[in-house]
Amino acid sequence: MSGRLKRFIRTITLIDLLKGLALTGSVWVRSIITPSQVLVTRPYPEVKRPAFPAFKGHHALLRKEDGSIRCVGCGICVGICPAKAISVYTEEGEHHEKVVSGYEINAFRCIYCGFCQEACPKDAIVLTRLYEMADYDDRGLYTWKMDRLLKVGDKKPLFRDEVDF
Residue 126: inside a domain, yes or no? Predict the structure, then answer.
């Protein structure tokens, strides 16, 4: 038989529809017999999917052991960011050293490549596995300032699945 004739017979006899109904029926019967073993969907807010080990999510700024910020304001992360999503603001300290006064990441511009994490000589910025970042009320929440990034970095273990903002 030719391919056209086979396709015509399958269309007339509704074989594909019957196969789909058989699959749905078998899942339904299995869910009645063993309800704990058949999980078609995940009840999302209660059961969260763990992120993959190489997943790059929300950024975090880390602190030193004494509680001060690790970032020295060198600007390497700003220079290497292909999306130009990072801004670092520095001031002159009391002993004429550079002090970081602000750190911002525009989450809409960020492409989550991880170059900033790789380029940082002090390991101050990391990308965590936090993936619940969606919000539809305020676009201003997607310009992550230094206090939010430090709050994410203070959460231990660092690669966890949730943080309260």
Answer: yes
Of residues 130 and 144, more confidence is placed in 144
Token duo for residue 97: 């050293």
Instruction: Answer yes or no: is 29 within a domain.
Output: yes
Q: For the chain, give the percent of residues with pLDDT over 90.
A: 51
- SS3 at position 144: strand
Reference 116, options 146, 155, 138, 86; nearest CA is 86
**Total domain count for the chain?**
2
Residue linked to tokens 């058989």: 22
Strand-strand pairing, 59-61 and 125-127: antiparallel
SS3 of 15-65: the string is HHHHHHHHHHHHHHHHHHHCCCCCCCCCCCCCCCCCCCCCCCCCEEECECC
Q: How far apart, in whole angstroms, are the C-alpha atoms of residue 149 and residue 165?
A: 10
* Section 34-43 average pLDDT: 72
> What's the predicted TM-score (pTM) here?
0.71
Q: Which amino acid is it at 63?
A: R
- Residue range(s) defining the domain that contains residue 123: 59-154
Report the 3 state secondary structure along 80-109: HCCCCCEEEEEEECCCCCEEEEEEEEECCC
